[in-house]
Amino acid sequence: MIIFDKVSKKFGSIIALEDVSFTLEKGEFVFLTGASGAGKTTLIKLLLGEYLPSAGEIEMNGEKVSKVSKKNLYLWRRKLGVVFQDYKLFWDKTVAENVALPLEIIKTPAKEIGEKVQKILELVGLEERKSLFPAQLSGGELQRVSLARAVITAPEILLADEPTGNLDPKTSKEMIRLFKEINEKGTTILMATHNNEIVDSFKARVIELEKGKVARDEKEGKYYKDKKKEKEEDDD
Amino acid sequence: MIKTAKDHIVRSPYQSLAAIFVLTLSLFLLSAFFLIGSGSQVILRHFESRPQVSAYLKDEAATQDIDLVKAKIQGNPKVKKIEFISKEQALELYKEQNKDKPLLLEMVSAKILPASLEVSTYDLSSLKSVAETLKQEEMVEDVVYHEDVVSSLSNWMATVRKFGLGVAVFLLTIAIMTILIILGMKISQRKEEIEILKLLGASPLHICAPFYFEGVIYGVLAAFISWGLSYGAILLSSSFLTQFLAGIPLLPVSPIFMLEVLGGLLFLGIFVGFVGSVLAVSRFSRTIR
Description:
The complex is a heterodimer of chains A (236) and B (289). Chain A has 236 residues and is an alpha/beta fold. Chain A has one domain: Rossmann fold (3-Layer(aba) Sandwich). In chain A, 35% of the residues lie in helices and 26% in strands. Chain B is of the alpha+beta class and 289 residues long. Chain B has two domains: 2-47 and 151-288, no CATH class; 51-145, 2-Layer Sandwich (Alpha-Beta Plaits). Chain B has a four-stranded antiparallel beta sheet with strand order 2-3-1-4. The longest helix of chain B is centred in the middle third of the chain and has 43 residues, at 147-189. The two termini of chain B are 17 Å apart. Chain A binds chain B through residues 48, 50, 70-71, 74-75, 77-78, 80, 82, 88-90, 92, 101-102, 105-106, 149, and chain B through 7, 11, 193, 195-204, 206, 289.
C-alpha cells in the first residue's frame, strides 16, 4: 500500500506538487493523468526517492520515505518496478541481459535468473528476441523489454511513466494488455499517461493532477472529466 | 562484477590501454631500480666477503717469515681473516677465473705468479692501516686493497636507493593519477547507465565494484607485463653481464627471486590500481550514490 499524505514539492519558488494526498491499495490499477507540467513525473520521482518531499510524507508498506537513509535508498527502490517512456535500457546488453539485470542486482543464482528471464520473455512475447540488442528492436519491443525488466523481480508496485508515449495506438493497446495481465496477478500499478484512449477503454481509477494538485480522484474515471474539457484540449 | 569490469575495459580499449601502459612503465622502471639495487647489493657483498687487502710476497720470502707476519696481522683486532695463497694456489685460482680463455692459460705458470697474503677486515675503514702495516714488511712486494671499489659502490648504492625511492614515489603518484583520470572519464561516460542501475535498486557497492575491479585488473596486467619486460631484459643482457661481472655470483638470477619480484609488482600494481579507482569513485560519489 502507498500513502501520499499532504505531499508538496518545491523547486525554489516553483511549486511542482502541492498538498497531494491519496492512497493506493494493494492490487489497484491507477492512471495518473494531467497536462504536461502538472506534476506526474515529479510524483513518480518522489516515489522512487529521486526527490524528497518538501512537505508531507510518502509511505510504502508501512515504511516512510523520510526515514530511509540515502545509503539505504536502493532497498526502497527494490520494492518498485519502473517502466520509462525512454525505456532506459543498456544498449550494449542483449534483451535477456537487460531483463536479467534486476535479478543480478539482488544476487539471484544464475540458474534461477535463466529460468525467470525465459518465463518473463514468454509473457511479453519476446522469447525469440532474447539474443538481440535493443538497437535491433522496434519501439513496442523495447517497451516490452523495459516492462519485462520492471516486473522480473515481482515487485509489489509497478510505476510506469508514459509507457506508451513513444508507441503507435496498436502497440500501445498491446502494452496495456500486458500491464493488465500483470495487474491481474496482484501487482499494484501506477501509470502516468497522456493516452486518453487507453484510459477510457480501461475502467480503472484515475487521479488527475492539475498545476501540482489533485484535481480529481475517480474510482472508474475517464481521461477527461467532461466533454467541455476534452473539447478545450482538442482545440489547444 | 568482474564481467562488468571486463566489459568496461573492452568497450573503451584505448583508455584502458593508456592506463595499463602508464602503470606498466611505472612498474617496469620500479622493478629496474629494484633489480639494479639488488644486483649492486650482491656485488657489494661479494667485494666485502672477498679478501680486501692482497699483499703480494717476494719470491724469496721464507715460510717462517710468512707465518710470523701472518701471526702479527692476525693479532690485530680489526682483522677478520688472513689467508696465505701459495704460487700453486694462485695458479689454480687464475685457471678457474680464465677457464674460457685457453690462450691466457698457456702463457702462465706458477713461477710467474706471486704468493700472497689475503686479508679481510671487519670494517672497511681499517683497510688502509692494515695495508700500511703490510707494506712495511720487507718480504712484501706490493699491496693492493679494494677500499675504493667497495666505498664507491656503497656510495653509489645509497644514491641509487635515494633516487630510486624518489622516482618510485613520483611514478606511482603519476600512475594513481592516470587511473583516477581514466576511470573518472569512464564513470562520467557511464552516468546514464549508473542512473539506470540506481533506479533498478543497485547498491552503491554494486555500482562501484566494477570500477574497483577495473583498477585492480589494470594493476595485475601491468605487473605481469612489467615483470615480463624486466625478466626479458635480464635474460637478454645475461651473456654480456656474465662477462662483465666475471667471478661475481650474480647471474643467472634465481627464478624464485624473480617470482618474489613478481609478487612485489603484483602487490604494488593492485595497490595503485585500487587506490586510483577508489579516488575516482569518491570523486564521482554524487553520481554513484
